Amino acid sequence: MSSLRQLKRAGKIICIGRNYADHITELNSARPKQPFFFQKPTSSILFPGDGPVIRPRGVDLHYEVELALIVGKRLRDLNAENESAALDAIDSYALSIDMTARNIQNEAKKKGLPWDISKGFDTFLPLSNIISKDKIPDPHKIELYLTVNDKVQQNDSTELMLFRLPRILSDISKVMTLEPGDIVLTGTPKGVGPVVPGDVMRAGIRVDGKELEEAKMEVH
Amino acid sequence: MSSLRQLKRAGKIICIGRNYADHITELNSARPKQPFFFQKPTSSILFPGDGPVIRPRGVDLHYEVELALIVGKRLRDLNAENESAALDAIDSYALSIDMTARNIQNEAKKKGLPWDISKGFDTFLPLSNIISKDKIPDPHKIELYLTVNDKVQQNDSTELMLFRLPRILSDISKVMTLEPGDIVLTGTPKGVGPVVPGDVMRAGIRVDGKELEEAKMEVH
Ligand SMILES: [Mg+2]
Ligand SMILES: [Mg+2]
Ligand SMILES: [Mg+2]
Description:
The structure is a homodimer.
Chain A: E1 13-17, H1 21-26, E2 36-40, E3 45-46, E4 61-63, E5 65-71, H2 83-88, E6 90-97, E7 100-101, H3 102-111, H4 116-120, E8 125-126, E9 131-132, E10 143-148, E11 151-157, H5 165-173, E12 183-185, E13 193-194, E14 201-207, E15 210-211, E16 217-219
Parallel strand pairs in A: 1-12, 3-8
Antiparallel strand pairs in A: 1-2, 4-7, 4-13, 5-6, 5-12, 6-9, 10-11, 10-14, 14-15, 14-16
The complex binds magnesium ion (MG) (3 copies).
C-alpha cells in the first residue's frame, strides 16, 4: 500500500466496537465477550486536507479517535495465538476518526437495525497520512489523543484495549477473509463526544511520549 | 462494468432490508417508514461456479433471493422524484442471494449490535452472471424465484417492492455517494428459509414469463 489515495479502493473497512472498557461505561453499553465489528464504506474516507466533515442535518455528530491498521497479507481463519502472523500481516498504520451519528446509532440500537447509516455518511472517516510500520514498534503501547478546539477530550494508551490486534484480526478473519489494502479500526478509548460545525479536531499518536508527525490530523 | 470478476473490487455492496411486505410479516419485523440498509463485504461474493456456500458451524443459514443492480454513474443526493436519473445511473443487473446467518442476526437485533457478521461471511453473496440492462426493460415488473431441492420457496414480482429503485438509490445517495461498480441489493420477497449442506438452491428471473438465461443460478 504505497499511496494514501489507494485506500479509497480498499476492499473493506472493518471497525471494532467497544474495545476500551471506559468507553463502554461512558456509553452505557454491555461489555462484549468477543470482539464485534461493523463496516464503514470506502466512500466515507476523508483524506488529509480534503475539507471538513459534513454534519448531516439533525445529526448528533460524535468523534471517536482510533488506531487503524492497513492489511498487507491475505488472512483467513487466523489463529488468535499466532501473534507473529497477525503482526506480520499488518502493512502499515494510520490514525482515524470514526465519526458517528450518535442519535441515529442509538435509534438503530433500540430498533435492532443495522449501524451502517449512522457510521457511513460521506466524510465520516477522516484518516491521517500512512504511518510506516517501523514507526510503531509496539501497537499496544502508544498513546492516542484527540482535542476539540484545543481541549483534550481523548488521551489514552492502546494498552487499554480489551482485545488486542491478534485477537481482532483472528476474529474478523474467521468471518471475512482480510485482503491486502483492507483497513481495520481498532476501537476508541473514553472521551467521545459531540462536535458542531466550526469546531476543530486535532488528533495524534505519541510513541514513548514523542509525537508522530505522520499521525497528526487537523479536521474541521 | 464489463467483467463479472471486477465486481470483487466494487467499492461497496449496499443491501436494502424489509422491502417486501410479506417478508416483513414472516420475520415479525416492523414495516420501515423509509428504506434502511446495510453492507455486505466484497469478500462475501461467490461467483457462478465458484463452489458451495460455506455454512459456518452453528449457523442457521437462510437464503434471500434479490434483484441486484450495478451502479454505472456517481450518485450523490439524488432526488427520489427523478426516476429517469435513477434508472439512467444503473449500469446493469444481477441476481443475488443474500445469505444470512439468521440466528446471529436475531441475536444482534436483540442486543442492538451491527448486522455485519450475520451478513458478511465468505461465500454469503452468490451472484449470477451480469444481466445487461436491455434484458430488463422494467425492473419493477419481473419475477424472482428461488427453489431449494427443486421445491419453489420464493416466487414473487418486483412489483411488490415497498420502495422502488429511484427511492432506494435516492436514500442511499443521501448518506453515501454511490460510485460506478457499487452493487445494490433491493430486498427479498417472502419465502426465506433455511438451507443445510447438500441442499441445492436454484434461482432465476422471469421477464414476461420468460426465463432470463443470464440470471440462472445453481448454488450448492
Ligand atoms: Mg471496495
Ligand atoms: Mg468506533
Ligand atoms: Mg436481504
